[in-house]
């Protein structure tokens, strides 16, 4: 049993170093409140969703630099009707985040703020700073984002992003407190349930974590990562059949390629089953 637990602990350490957060990072950015509502044609959305980040950079870099990235055009940009020019820089920043080029992502989100000083752009910038390990700057922009979002009770994504930084700093109880406030927002609820389940899992509250994954799946049954992380909770509770069923469902939803997290957990399940038979 010690062997199994040490293997699982190793996987958890990998998640803490970034695998878990990157799993939901792009999905979080692609939420309607942050990108989709600003992109009616959804061309950039489709490219980002399929990890074609270089194409998004090519399509948006010049548009960002000519508008929000150019101080001489700021007054003109601020008066433009229709699509907010900040969306070009926001898309650019999201693409750079997907490429793990955090320095360029920071620059892009700063340009987005130059055109549109909004909670979503400060929150995105803070998240980029978090991944660049500049927690001081991240804290500044998280607070700014949450201050701006306080005017709109439906905008809870800054709090979810802030919880990501706390998770990366292993401040699970603080992250849990923020996420418990966030789960009252229906639009972003399944993201909050996912992160809340993770913070509880890291505190070894496996049964409670399981209940939040259940709620998240009830809200969005087509989000594969909810099944993957629920499978880990099932595994910890020795509910191996349920864990295997969740992994199968995750593979059905996201059929492209081999997911290493699924493969690793499935191997652990098989070893535990063999150990139980001895």
From TrEMBL:
UniProt xrefs under PROSITE patterns: TPR
InterPro entries found in the cross-reference section: TPR-like_helical_dom_sf, TPR_rpt, Ycf3
Transmembrane segments annotated in the record for this chain: none
Protein name: Tetratricopeptide repeat protein
Organism expressing this protein natively: Leptospira gomenensis
SUPFAM superfamilies: TPR-like
Keywords of the record: Repeat, TPR repeat
Signal peptide: none
Ranges: TPR repeats: 190-223
């Amino acid at each position: 049993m010690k062997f199994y637990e040490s293997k699982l602990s190793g996987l958890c350490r990998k998640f803490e170093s970034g695998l878990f957060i990157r799993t939901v990072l792009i999905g979080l950015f692609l939420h309607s409140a942050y990108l989709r509502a600003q992109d009616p044609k959804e061309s950039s959305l489709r490219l980002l969703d399929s990890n074609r980040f270089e194409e998004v950079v090519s399509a948006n870099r010049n548009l960002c630099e000519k508008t929000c990235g150019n101080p001489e055009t700021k007054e003109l940009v601020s008066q433009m009707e229709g699509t907010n020019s900040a969306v070009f820089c926001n898309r650019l920043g999201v693409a750079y985040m997907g490429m793990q080029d955090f320095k360029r992502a920071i620059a892009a989100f700063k340009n987005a703020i130059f055109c549109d000083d909004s909670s979503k752009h400060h929150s995105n910038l803070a998240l980029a700073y978090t991944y660049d390990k500049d927690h001081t700057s991240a804290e500044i922009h998280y607070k700014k984002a949450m201050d701006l979002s306080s005017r709109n009770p439906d905008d809870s994504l800054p709090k979810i992003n802030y919880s990501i930084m706390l998770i990366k700093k292993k401040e699970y109880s603080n992250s849990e407190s923020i996420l418990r406030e966030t789960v009252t927002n229906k639009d972003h609820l399944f993201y909050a349930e996912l992160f809340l389940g993770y913070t509880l899992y890291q505190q070894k509250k496996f049964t409670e974590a399981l209940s939040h994954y259940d709620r998240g799946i009830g809200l969005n049954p087509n989000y594969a990562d909810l099944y993957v992380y629920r499978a880990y909770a099932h595994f910890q509770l020795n509910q191996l059949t349920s864990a295997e069923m969740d992994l199968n469902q995750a593979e059905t939803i996201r059929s492209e390629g081999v997911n290493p997290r699924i493969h690793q957990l499935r191997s652990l399940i098989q070893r535990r089953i063999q150990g139980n038979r001895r």
